[in-house]
Amino acid sequence: MVSGKMLGFISFSTTYWAMTHGVKPQHNVCPPFFLNGNRMRNLFILLGFVLCSSCAQLPPSAIPNAPPKQEQAVVLDIDGTLTPKVFDIVEARTDAANGVSTFAKKGYKIIYLSTRISWLSAGIPSWLKKHNFPDGSVHVTQTDEDRSHPYDFKTRTLKDFIDHGWDIKYAYGDSSTDFAAYAAVGIPKERVFALLRDGETLCESGDWKECLNGWTKHLEFITKSVPSVPAN
After folding, report:
1. Domain 72-225 belongs to what architecture?
2. What is the predicted pLDDT for the residue at 54?
3. Is residue 72 a contact partner of residue 229, using CB atoms and an 8 Å limit?
């Protein structure tokens, strides 16, 4: 049986996550379930993450130096960008892995950024592998302060990549804080794409070229319009 403390912890954590991602809970709905009609399914998913042995914070990752003449990169938010919406952390958007893999095959460094709450962040690498996303640098917030200020975290991390020689050519996100961070480090609006969260009618505001309903139709752009990175 799940204790009252555990349910309280889940309720608090999901509400906190929603607040830091700009998601508004529905009135009179228990926080763990306000984004999905299937309440029991979401409960078991959350409990599984809480009770599993790997539920811990993903440690910080070192930022590698860019190799000469092959320094181009693409940055992607995870929750709501590679998943259908912020709390659908189990599912992947259709063809998201195909899109990101195409970037990787063309020679781009893949940068994954996430402000996911600490006790769910350790599962990100295995989730990416399970859903066939290519290898990349995974960077998650390490403190409550960063989780409360995603713009600051993402801006700082991307500036670190630039300081290490990386040229960030393309960017994908679903939150206004994503787009503000991308603009702050000089990624051109023409190479920034917003993902529409499931259940919403508009992408969040920001400097982006296009609001994408998903990745499937966007594959043609990545395949035909994104140039390959010149080999050394």
Report:
1. 3-Layer(aba) Sandwich (3.40)
2. 45
3. yes
